[in-house]
Amino acid sequence: MRRYLKKMHLAAVSCLVLAGCGGGGGGTATAVLNLMVETLTGGTFSADALSVSRFQSITTDWRQAAQDLRNTALYQTQQFSWYVDSNNNAARDPATEPLFNSFSIASSRVDYAHAAGLTGAGQTIAVMDDGFLTSHETIAGRVTAGYTGPVENHGTAVASILAGLSSEMIGVAPGATLVLGTYDSPENRAAATNLARARGAIVQNNSWGFVGEPANSATFSRLFANGSEAPYLAALQNYTRNGVVVFAAGNNPFETTAGIMEALPLFAPELEPGWLTVISGVPSFDDNRILSVQRVSAPCLQAARWCLAADGSWMAASADSVSSYGTAPVIGTSFAAPVVSGAIALLAEAFPTLTAHDLRARLIATADNDFAGFTASGRLEVIPGSGVFHDYSTEWGHGFLDVRAALLPIGTPVARMADGTAQVADQPMIVAGGATGDAVARSLSAVPVLVTDALGGDFTMPGSALAATPSTPPVSTRLWQSMFSPDQRPGVIQAYGGADMAFAAGGLEMAFIAPDSSRALNGDPAMAATIGQRIAAAGGEVFIGLNVTRDDGTLLPGIGGQASTLAALELAFTHQGSNGAFVEMGGSFGMAPGGSGVALSRQSDVRFNAFRLEAGQRDILRTGDKLRFGVSLPIAVTSGRTEIALPVARSASGIDYRQVGIDYSPRDREINLSVTYDAPIGRGTDLFVGAIHAVNHGHIAGQRDTAAILGIRKTF
Asked: How many other C-beta atoms are found inside a 10 Å radius of the C-beta of residue 414?
């Protein structure tokens, strides 16, 4: 039995040739770290917005920050073109030797993680390889456990891709620390894996495998069940209970059977939740997705269920001599695997409450498989019972690594409320009500609400996202109503756009809104009834009425689908002067009783009112015409508040809740100014002209709306 390393060559007789570097030049480690600090503390983002767990989408600022990093000399070092000199003639033959353009730190979207301030800080990565130059400037000071093994190029390069940072290159997780071990004997393999567990490593990287040991039952039995690797298998079983093992696949693009290490969970299924295999491919991509990929390694084959692809083309640390601290290009699955391992460390920093298995599931669930040439051969529920499924193929596994997507919400996040209910983040919990303006959103705007995605990732969103304010009808609708009902009272029913049914006889008036589920805003549809009496008094006519309404969120806030019941007293007075002058005024005064409801602790009584004053003159230009000037204040809440317990953080003991007071009273009230003129122009036909202007439209400061109308009213 012989060990083998994953060579940087694509075939045993191949020679790697660097065709050209993109960007060029030095840059310093200090400059890059400063850029990251500036981004976190005072650059494009605010400090709060830059917590990755707060990202709800790919923002323009985040894109720009990632682009700024990619344009630095340190990141540009990782952008280069290369080919495999398969005939060893020291020249590229275009017909048989394709040119590959690699930019692995960008194609894997690691740059987005760095732009968000993530470096893998606080995480430990275990590396099992052939040897390491621990004094190399890229990893010096990052090795936590004592290492006294051999010095080798391969292991040094792998370690630098995982956690390197120098003036020459930057790795995937430059803030992580390393635990090093060698694979040169069964005892050392078991010891290195046990050390990884003892040191709390979140992931163990393995850029090696066994030569000529295919994935089959005979190989497993000979090596692990009855052979010298049994202690190593036991160490892997213990480690993968809490950590993730990453193995590089083979480099032969024509391979038809996976190696035993890549496919080990086939024979030891308990390993699968903590196992990943990585193949190498060079993608064509833009800032949104992978367009196509050229595979330059073995396919995933039997390891497809736990396999990912990444670009294993890097400018990495070289240990050609102990006094050399330079870098050199490396190519192969050996250098794709640490991209995935480093990504686990980045996610561990971003999602500190998730397990290593949860982080592995995020990488699988978000792998980009929407590129040309991907053909699904199976589907995996990434965490049993999660309801999150992802397609995989025999060739590409789950697809190409996408760290950015793994940092974003998976599925629809939910807020876990204090009463045990789950509030879906893309649906409003509170329908704010038109009588409150933006009061609810303002009360919630400064509150960060904790939401959890389908795979347990915690995110925060502004509390105002829980509230939806019904759009305020344009003032043109009020003009339209006044054209056909000029003697409107400022009652509750008018706030709904008028009655569905109305009756009047002998001074008695009744008006109703019938329930209509098609227009319900919050739970059950609105219902309303007003009954009142007109009586002669004070030299004019007085109307006294009582309204009872079940509100659906049109007027008052509805929380968790609960409707509000409100009652209102409606008063109006009309006086007709002897010279054709007239004045009309009215008001509505109402209340909704307090109580408790979904996720609420205390809710006060809610009081509201509305006013209207109009004055005018009849028979100005012709008999029967009427000119009106009016001012009105639509229904608005004058007092009332509630408190709601909102999830704001997660601690060791669970979710932390904060009692948040929500004031229902709008800060600025809407005022409407109107002028109308109507005149008869024929039998049953009237001309109507009007204009209206609203200040603080919708009870929102600074909002204005204006409308005018010219119409003909016909009575049949």
From this structure: 18
Provide the pLDDT for residue 601: 52
Q: Are 393 and 400 contacting, i.e. CB atoms less than 8 angstroms apart?
A: no
**How do residues 213-258 score in pLDDT, each as one tens digit?**
999 999 999 999 988 999 999 999 999 999 999 999 999 999 999 9
Q: Is residue 1 predicted with pLDDT exceeding 70?
A: no
Q: Tokens representing 171?
A: 């790795």
Whole-angstrom Cα distance, residue 681 to residue 685?
A: 6
Tokens at 150, concatenated = 């051999």
CA-to-CA separations, 16 to 12, 84, 327, 526, in angstroms, rounded: 11, 5, 15, 73
Enumerate the H helices of 502-566 as residue ranges: none
Rounded-to-integer distance, Cα 505 and Cα 417, Å? 51
Whether residue 82 has pLDDT greater than 90:
yes
The two structure tokens encoding residue 239: 């480690």
Neighbouring residues of 219: CB distance < 8 A, sequence distance ≥ 6: 213, 260
Contact 142, 119 (CB under 8 A): no
User: What pTM does this model have?
Assistant: 0.81
- Which amino acid type is present at position 567? A
C-alpha to C-alpha distances, 575 to 502, 617, 623, nearest whole angstrom: 23, 12, 19
> Residue for token digits 């990585």?
278
Rounded average pLDDT over 66-77: 97
- Average pLDDT on 266-293 reads 98
Domains of the chain from N-terminus onward: 3-407 (3.40.50.200), 475-641+667-714 (no CATH)
The CB density around residue 212, as the number of other CB atoms within 10 Å, is 10
Of 667, 676, 559, give the one whose Cα is nearest residue 616.
Answer: 676
**Alpha helices of 27-98 — where are they, by DSSP H?**
29-41, 60-70, 73-76
- Considering just the CA atoms, what is the radius of gyration of the chain in Å? 35
Any residues with CB less than 8 A from the CB of 89 and at least 6 apart, and which?
none
**How far is C-alpha 37 from the geometric centre of its chain's CA atoms?**
23
Of 25-34, 414-423, 465-474, give the range with the top mean pLDDT. 414-423
Q: Per residue in 646-668, is it b (16+ CB within 10 Å) or e — as a string?
A: bbbebeeeebebbebebbbbbeb
**C-alpha distances in Å from residue 63, one per residue of 101, 252, 461:** 22, 36, 19
Enter the DSSP assignment of 221. Answer: I
> In the structure encoding, which two tokens stand for residue 226, read together?
């009855």
414-416 and 508-513 beta bridge pairing: unpaired
Count other Cβ atoms within 10 Å, centred on residue 307: 30
The 3-state DSSP class for residue 407 equals helix
